[in-house]
Amino acid sequence: MNRALNCAQQAAADGEVPVGALVVRDGVVLAEAGNRPIAGTDPTAHAEINALRAASLAVGNYRLPGSTLYVTLEPCMMCVGAIVHARVETLVFAAREPKAGAVVSAAALLDSTFLNHRVNVIEGPCAAESAELMSAFFANRRSARAQKDAK
Q1: Which residues, 6+ apart, have CB-to-CB distance to 91 below 8 Å?
Q2: Are 74 and 96 in contact (CB under 8 A)?
Q3: DSSP H helices in 2-106
């Protein structure tokens, strides 16, 4: 999860919402990525999607059985769909996302009976660090906006 946090910190440094992700299989990191929707002008360029795309390219298959996706923030519904389609075995996420989290917060999509793949879920490693990174990012953004508005 520390590597995912590093990706999230880099995303924040690039002006993106600080979310980082990595895909691991058999103890090997297949890919790691941060959020890039702003830089990539791509609403689907969430950290999870970027990491899954890179991992799929690395192994030459859009299916990633036996893999674990580590992410610093609870995935949204788009990312949950990608996780299922990629056949990720285990999702490990740090902090909950109360507004749009689609694993345990706003929805529990991975518990849906209509899904044809089950994903193991582990919640909480580095949750405090991830939440603090997110809080600091948005506090800085609000401060910058207030300073701009004051001029």
Answers
A1: 68, 69, 71, 75, 83, 103, 110, 119, 120, 121, 122
A2: yes
A3: 2-13, 47-59, 77-85
Contacts of 79 (CB under 8 A, 6+ apart): 46, 48, 49, 71, 102
Question: pLDDT confidence of 31, banded at 50, 70, 90?
Answer: very high
pLDDT single digits (tens) 76-128: 999 999 999 999 999 999 999 999 999 999 999 999 999 999 999 999 999 99
List, in order, residues 6 or more apart from 107 with CB less than 8 Å away. Answer: 77, 101
48 is annotated as an active-site residue = yes
For residue 24, the model assigns a pLDDT of 98
Long-range contacts of 31-40 (CB under 8 A, 24+ apart): 31/55, 31/57, 31/58, 32/3, 32/4, 32/7, 33/7, 34/7, 34/8, 34/10, 35/8, 35/11, 36/11, 39/14, 39/15
Residue type, 36: R
User: Torsions phi, psi of 36, nearest 5?
Assistant: -150, 30
Catalytic residue (choose from 16, 32, 48, 97): 48
